[in-house]
Amino acid sequence: MDFKTYKSPIRAVGSLNQGTNTVLFAGDCMELIRLIPDNSIDLTITSPPYCMGKEYESSESVDDFIAAHEAVLPEVVRITRDGGSICWQVGYHVHDKTAYPLDYPVFAIMAGIKEVKLRNRMVWSFGHGLHGTMRFSGRHETILWFTKGDDYHFDLDAVRVAQKYPGKRHYKGPKKGELSGNPKGKNPGDVWEIPNVKGNHIEKEGHPCQFPVGLAERCVRALCPDGGIVFDPYMGSASSGVAAIVNGRRFLGAEKDAKYEGLAHNRLLRAYDGAVPFRPADRPIRVPSSQEAVARRPEHFTEVFQ
Ligand SMILES: C[S@@+](CC[C@H](N)C(=O)[O-])C[C@H]1O[C@@H](n2cnc3c(N)ncnc32)[C@H](O)[C@@H]1O
């Protein structure tokens, strides 16, 4: 195992440059990023604070989110290799029942950086969350995937999913009667239904806003070459680090809260031992059988559905 944690950003970057596989920095990501050389990261995948008053957030204002992103995004582009990718996962800032989609300012800032192109806006949908009474309940967030330049790494075969109709055939034209699907599986598309890490999800580590390892893994496998460097500036419990390690990529993560940095450190040690449970993105969503108590409708429920 080749894994180091530092409180000094100079040492962290030095260690990464010397080839250490996994490097954690316990501090503010901007201190670290400023020291990372140009064109050195293959994939950044992260979920920044949404400024929603969570225990790890110092602001509740969208203006602060925008100001922080005006500083961090150009720097993340600078350190990304030509042909590398940036996946920025955000949801909505909600205040007074008013929703502000945080990918709007992220896109607006990135649109002003000429070498960067948006390739997809993935919708991450999940079945559970808070129940709205004056709005539809929020059940999705987004991931903006940008590349630096046009000649970018994209390994679709590494993330194909099972065909829905593998026996489907061309019904007309010269291939009429032949099987029409790709035998390697189909493109997963840009709507990803992956359960969020709530309740008794097997990935729960004690961080309030973990994203699923499967979500990060799909990005890692498709967008970072074998042995390449995955970076997460706001790593939290290091879900992206787990995805990197189990897939043979290097990892650089920053976390300014000592409690979460410690949690990430322990989790990545376990990842090296193959002891971190996670749910692959292509596992079908579980539907309870009619025999299970949770699927039975109580007498007094007035809902009537077909
Ligand atoms: C939304 S959470 C990320 C959760 C992560 N994706 C996971 O799966 O656990 C954002 C994290 O960024 C950390 N953070 C906030 N500002 C930071 C900064 N300037 N530098 C480093 N970490 C920061 C917070 O403490 C929090 O743990």
In the residues, how many domains can be counted? Answer: 1
Low-confidence segments, ≥5 residues, pLDDT <50? none
- The helix/strand class is alpha/beta
- The CATH topology corresponds to Rossmann fold
Helical residues, percent: 10-25%
Order of helices and strands: EHEHEHEEEHEEEHEHEH
Counting DSSP E segments of at least 2 residues, the number of strands comes to 11
How much beta, percentage-wise? 15-25%
How would you characterize this protein structure?
This protein is an alpha/beta fold. The protein is built from 7 helices and 11 strands. Strands 1-2-11-10-3-4-8-7-9 form a 9-stranded mixed beta sheet, sandwiched between helices. Strand 10, helix 6 and strand 11 form a beta-alpha-beta unit. The model has no long low-confidence stretch (mean pLDDT 94). S-adenosylmethionine binds next to strand 11.
SSE layout:
Elements: E1 3-6, H1 9-17, E2 22-26, H2 29-33, E3 41-46, H3 62-79, E4 80-90, E5 92-95, E6 98-101, H4 103-111, E7 116-125, E8 140-148, E9 191-193, H5 213-223, E10 229-232, H6 239-246, E11 250-255, H7 258-272
Parallel strand pairs: 1-2, 2-11, 3-4, 3-10, 7-9, 10-11
Antiparallel strand pairs: 4-8, 5-6, 7-8
Helix pairs in contact: 3-4, 5-6, 6-7
Keywords:
306 residues, alpha/beta, Rossmann fold, nine-stranded mixed sheet, two-stranded antiparallel ribbon, 7 helices, 11 strands, binds S-adenosylmethionine
Give the structure's gist in a few sentences.
Helix content is 25%, strand content 22%. With 306 residues, the chain is of the alpha/beta class. S-adenosylmethionine binds at residues 28-29, 47, 49, 56, 207, 209-211, 234, 236-237, 239, 254-257, 260.
